[in-house]
Each structure stands twice: as structure tokens, then as C-alpha cells.
């Protein structure tokens, strides 16, 4: 596929805009990836400064978006243009198929933004990106993520270990 970043679509919900993450989002990504919940439940990506975040975006996020046409989206509130979180469909190593994921800055949690953005991506997975199923993985300790995956219609399948991880994670699945 090899799309250019300017060829990628932006999507909207009632309150949110989902834009493919680019290096212009580096400051936001640095802040999000260093929140306590991100580090506890997703893992420390060792981003120490904006340059680290730009490199992470260029090396980890952009290639998947260009290759398959979807990936990580920066979630922005319409009314004030605040970058509040990220949501995406990921071709993640150690997970067969495409994985839906989400994370928000602490001050924007518990306001329905996670469900609103992830539900939009779930719909797009089947209608726009022609996927037949999506997965979700989460830590056994991340009850909020488990609840959101179930609210999206994904059902628990089994515990799995991701490549190079020692801790098992819960695998959820939804087939279209």
C-alpha cells in the first residue's frame, strides 16, 4: 500500500477528531507515554524528550500507517482542539491479527472519550479497513481497559504472552 502521510484520512465522532499520529504530535506523545498508567499497563518506551518521541513516531508508528493505511490516531477534542489521547488499530508483534488499543491523559479519563474513539475505530475496522476481526490485549490489573473492551463487544479468549514479555496479558476478540 505505502501511503504518504498526507493521503491518510482523518475521522470524526460527535466530540472528537481522530488524526493519524505524526511527528507534529511528538510533545503530546511524550506526555502520554510517560503517564503512570501508560508505564504501568503498557510499558515504558523510554521516551525522555521530544526528539525521542519524534524518533519513536518515525520508526514505530508511521511505518505501519504507511504500510496498511491505519495505525495510531491522536484523539483531539473538537471544542478546544486539546490532544487528549490516542486510539489505534495495531499490527502488534506477538498478537495474531489486528489489535485495538487506547490511552488517554489522566485528566480526560472517565468522560466517555475512550469508548467514543475506540467504537469509531471498531466500526472503521470492519467498514473502511475490511478487517474480519479485531483483538484487544490488556493487563490483568487494568480493569478499566477490560471493561472498555467488553463494552466494545470484544470477548475474553485466553491469557497470552507477548514476544519478550514475562507477564501474561488477557486476549479479547471480536469477529465481524
From TrEMBL:
Pfam families attached to this UniProt entry: Acetyltransf_3
Superkingdom of source: Bacteria
SUPFAM superfamilies: Acyl-CoA N-acyltransferases (Nat)
Domain spans labelled N-acetyltransferase: 16-176
InterPro entries the record matches: Acyl_CoA_acyltransferase, GNAT_dom, N-acetyltransferase
Gene Ontology MF terms in the entry: acyltransferase activity, transferring groups other than amino-acyl groups
Sorted UniProt keywords: Transferase
Protein name: Protein N-acetyltransferase, RimJ/RimL family
Organism: Flavobacterium gillisiae
Amino acid at each position: 500500500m505505502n501511503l504518504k502521510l498526507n493521503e491518510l484520512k482523518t475521522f470524526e465522532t460527535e466530540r472528537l477528531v481522530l488524526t493519524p499520529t505524526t511527528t507534529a504530535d511528538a510533545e503530546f506523545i511524550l506526555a502520554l507515554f510517560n503517564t503512570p498508567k501508560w508505564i504501568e499497563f503498557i510499558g515504558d518506551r523510554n521516551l525522555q524528550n521530544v526528539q525521542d518521541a519524534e524518533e519513536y513516531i518515525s520508526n514505530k508508528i508511521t511505518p505501519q500507517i504507511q504500510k496498511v493505511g491505519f495505525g495510531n490516531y491522536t484523539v483531539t477534542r473538537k471544542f478546544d482542539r486539546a490532544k487528549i489521547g490516542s486510539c489505534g488499530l495495531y499490527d502488534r508483534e506477538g498478537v495474531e491479527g489486528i489489535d485495538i488499543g487506547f490511552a488517554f491523559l489522566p485528566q480526560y479519563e472517565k468522560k466517555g472519550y475512550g469508548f467514543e474513539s475506540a467504537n469509531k475505530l471498531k466500526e472503521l475496522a470492519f467498514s473502511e479497513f475490511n478487517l474480519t476481526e479485531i483483538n484487544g490485549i490488556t493487563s490483568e490489573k487494568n480493569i478499566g481497559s477490560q471493561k472498555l473492551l467488553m463494552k466494545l463487544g470484544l470477548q475474553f479468549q485466553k491469557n497470552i504472552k507477548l514476544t519478550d514479555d514475562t507477564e501474561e496479558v488477557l486476549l479479547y476478540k471480536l469477529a465481524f
